[in-house]
Amino acid sequence: MAVTPEQVLDAILTEGVRAAEARAGSIGVVSEDGERIELLAQIGYRPEVMEDWQEFRVDAPTPMSDVIRTGEPIFISSVQERNRLYPSLAQVGQEDGHALVVVPLAVEGRVFGAISLSFDHDIEFEPERREMKIALARQAAQAITRSRLYAAEQAMRERMTFLAEASQLLASSLDYNRTLRRLAQLCVPRLADWCAIDMVDEDGGIERLAVAHEDPEKVKWAYELQERYPPDPDAQRGVPQVLRSGEPDFLPTIPEQLLEDAIGDDHELRRIVDELGLKSSIAVPLIARGRTLGALSLIAAERHPVFTAADLELAIELGRRAAVAVDNARLYREAERGANAARALAYVADGVVLLDRDGTVRHWNPAAAAITGVSEDDALGRPVAEVVPAWDSLTTHVQLLAPGSAPRPVTVPIVVGGHERWVAVSGVKFGGGTVYALQDVTEERALEKTRSDFVATASHELRTPLAAVYGAVRTLRRDDVQLSESDKAQFLEMIESEATRLAKIVDQILVAGQLDAGAVELELTECNPAEVAAGVIESAATHVPESISLSLDAREPPQIACDPNKLRQVLVNLVDNAVKYSPDGGAVVLRVRGDNGSCRIDVLDEGLGIPSGEQSRIFEKFYRLDPQQTHGVGGSGLGLYICKELVERMDGRLTVESEPGKGSRFSVVLPVRA
Amino acid sequence: MKAEVSQPIRSTSLRRRGVAVGGRRVWSCQAGDRPRSRSQASGSGSATPASGAARRVLVVDDERAIRLLCRVNLAASGMEVIEAADGRAGLELARKERPDLVLLDVMMPDVDGWTVARELAEGMETRDIPVVFLTARADTADKRLGEQLGGVGYLVKPFDPVSIGDYVEDVLSRIERGEREQLRREISSGRER
Fold this sequence. Notes:
- The structure holds two protein chains of two kinds.
- By secondary structure, chain A is α+β, with helices and mostly antiparallel strands.
- Chain A has five domains: about 5-155, GAF domain (Beta-Lactamase, 2-Layer Sandwich), CATH 3.30.450; about 170-330, Beta-Lactamase (2-Layer Sandwich); about 350-440, Beta-Lactamase, CATH 3.30.450; about 445-515, Orthogonal Bundle (Helix Hairpins), CATH 1.10.287.130; about 525-670, 2-Layer Sandwich (Heat Shock Protein 90), CATH 3.30.565.
- Chain A contains 21 helices and 24 strands.
- In chain A, the strands form five sheets. A six-stranded antiparallel sheet of chain A has the order 3-2-1-6-5-4, with helices on both faces. In chain A, strands 12, 13, 14, 15, 16 and 17 form a six-stranded mixed sheet that branches. A five-stranded antiparallel sheet of chain A has the order 8-7-11-10-9, with helices on both faces.
- Chain B folds into two domains: about 1-45, no CATH class; about 55-185, Rossmann fold, CATH 3.40.50.
- The longest helix of chain B has 13 residues, at about 65-75.
- The chains are: A alpha+beta, B alpha/beta.
């Protein structure tokens, strides 16, 4: 069981008084600031005598003050001698006054106090007796020093333990708000009666994060108090001043006047302050990397002794550690957020480019690299105009928006690696710079172009037959010209055939549109391809010119699974094409064969053939052999596209082989019935 | 404007001037006219006699229906019509017959209308023959191309064949008045006919 310095002092004094056969005694110790003497132990004096002597100045005219100042013992044999030497003490303890001894308490030559012994009779102190008293004082000094050292060590150990605990707590979680609340809890009652933590928020305001007291009721009350008496952020003392200056604010004893000024005429507040019993306060800043993040306040009130310099030191250290923990947690969170953002941006399909206010690239995600053809390494930290020379033209028309507005992308072409790409660019300007979103819309644009080409081409295709019908009607209705009978007949025939052609084109446009939309329904049934082929030949024979020979070559083909109507449609189209491109005397053959688990239907002709470079493209919508679409043979440009789409929807394939000048072979391969 | 001063006088307008002078084929020549142009024009045996001559229009279109419409309606306006069913035949006829004007389709097999117009403009004998495109291609870009290739008119199908004769006559008389450049510019300036 540890002995406190106070207990040691009491024991030494008691023992000293008894050994010296003195009536009373006291031990005075110099205060920390070296200006006062505090009586830390006393025995035998009447309380009313000592009432005014609990604490007095080192330069006061008393024997103890002199001893402490000079380091020399004083031996006074009678009250008369005392009063002669110290006239100001004439009225003190007059009736008990006899001999008095005051010897210094020193360790290693440094006087830290004195022990005084009063006797109940006058004594002429012999040298031996004096030596005895001095020896006693020496022993007492050593004992006191030991116990003080021990106490100091003990206190130090406690502080270290506390700091260790606090550090462990601070390191336990990245949720620093929660950690700081627990830290405040840890401080009471070991460090103070009250502990409060205030943080500087993003707007520079002060936010009370935690208030701790042993009694939760009092904590509640403290918050209510704060509600009612919000702190003045411009106050010249306390937390606001600490946050402003970054310097601790230490009041070992809260001056009455300070409280009086704060209370004013508010009776309620006076009652509260009286009840709180504020004694001593410390407020220290939480500083990390030169920034004041908040403040930690400690108050000694009803139980805790007034704070000492050691308490201030501990509070400062605690504040420093808390600040580092908060800073680390914030940095970590920021880094994590940054890493998460970067991770997210790495996988976003849109290019994201962040420029600082000077136009230097600060972020360049992989999509931005892909779109611009410039790698992240080559872009980061460089002026964007240097990274992408066309940047200005890319962003000239981009209206920079405020954060949160709906983006208004502008689509512009850029050339990357010799290829033109279309990029939709939008930009948002914020405090730290500008962030651009780049979207590669090259494919969408190509699709859009295909769509608009489709519309344009469809309208071209419709215009010619329409011109014929309209023109024929207009001409027939002319009353200023007498048309010959044969002309009239030709115009009527023209109206009929061109109207039919119009209908066919419109039909195919519709079918192509339905195929594109996936809206064509097929009825797959078992069917005999030879029968379908025979039907196609039969109906084609009625309008094929005599100069072209048309034949069917079917050798016991397998049954297949298909939509017979759609297959017929495909074959009619292929045969019509073959006939159309056949020279006079040419042969068109429809050949049906079983082929390795599938059925192959070939349409062969001896026509112009198709250049090999074009063969893969003839199945595209509106694709004509001549890029200028100069074929005026009356097709819609959709026939082969529709054929291929239909065959593929029947799980088959449509291919072409051709040698220019010799002819072509279109092959439909369909699976046999499962 | 310099461009207009240096513009050679077209054979058509030369012919018209000839008519104005009298019964004989008299060719007038203005400053800036190229001698070659004159010699070719005067040296051509197929030049239409000036007096009472009908306008001769070459229709180049692979669509029989369009050719028929043009033939019947231009004839109704007293014009003579020659026809070609494809670009190659059109070029041959233009060179051989030296028509007063060509009505030219664009989308034709093998040699298309653009090619025909380009070759006509490049040929010394045919460069002055006015070309009017008659096509289903209605895009602005197409019209611009037509203008670049030296066309003096651009008709989009469907067109009114009843007024085609008046149209051709109007174009030819404006060219005679020296408005050829203006006609050309009107193609893409949005002025619809």
